[in-house]
Amino acid sequence: MSTIQILVKNHSGANRVYFLFVEAPEVSVGPKVFQNVYMASSTVADGTGSATFTCHTDYYAVCGTSPGQDLKSNVRVTTGDSEIAGLCQGGQNGTHHLMTGAPGNSAMFDKPNKKVDCTQKGAFMISSANFLLGNGANQFIGLGGQDPVDSSNIVPIAVVPAQPSTDAYIVPKAIYYISWGTYLPGQIIDVTTIAKPAKLDFTGTAATSASVVHKNDGSWDIKI
Questions:
Q1: pLDDT (tens digit, 9 = 90+) per residue, 68-84?
Q2: Which has the closest alpha carbon to 20: 213, 224, 189, 221?
Q3: Which of 30, 45, 186, 187 is least buried, going by the fewest C-beta atoms within 10 A?
Q4: What is the Cα 176 distance to its own chain's centre?
Q5: Given pLDDT bands bounded at 50, 70 and 90, which one contains residue 129?
Q6: How far, in Å, are 54, 158, 191 from residue 112 at the CA level?
Q7: What beta strand segments (E) does 23-109 contain?
Q8: In the chain, what percentage of residues exceed pLDDT 90?
């Protein structure tokens, strides 16, 4: 398993808490892809402090529920179930995951029926079985990343509402963002209202590390 390490130095003029999120993947269903915080730092002192984010580059298919709360900004969700995902690339098919809504108002993967037959370039696939919409469970599917501290915890980093009897193709992007503010992993953010982020694009590169300096004028000095 490979990782990308991002070092953030705080020269902004104030103590900060930084958080990391990813570019919204392309998803073939749903009107909106919700972006979640992947990881967050503790408070980083101005001038002398830094934070390191270690991002595992494996992708995961995730599903779960948000009981009583529609997916929207500031709602925090956790992964109900996950499976490691493979993308359709390099002559290999991507993985195909089946989400069920049973028993009750739940969301889980039918692991014995996982397939490797996704043929859309750069994608993996999640098929949602038939389940009752409007049940208050607010089932979701999406993309997850491994928690750098707890390998058993897969954090939802981009989610969409699940739709019954629907195939969703998900194409992740190797683009990361750093911003500042007090958020928790799994919390949905509105990227139009957060502090201006630093964009780190690893698309097509072999780089495994980057450094970011948060400057006093609010801008970012980025080196990949």
A1: 999 999 999 999 999 99
A2: 189
A3: 45
A4: 10
A5: confident
A6: 31, 25, 37
A7: 26-27, 34-36, 39-44, 50-56, 59-64, 81-85, 94-100, 108-109
A8: 90
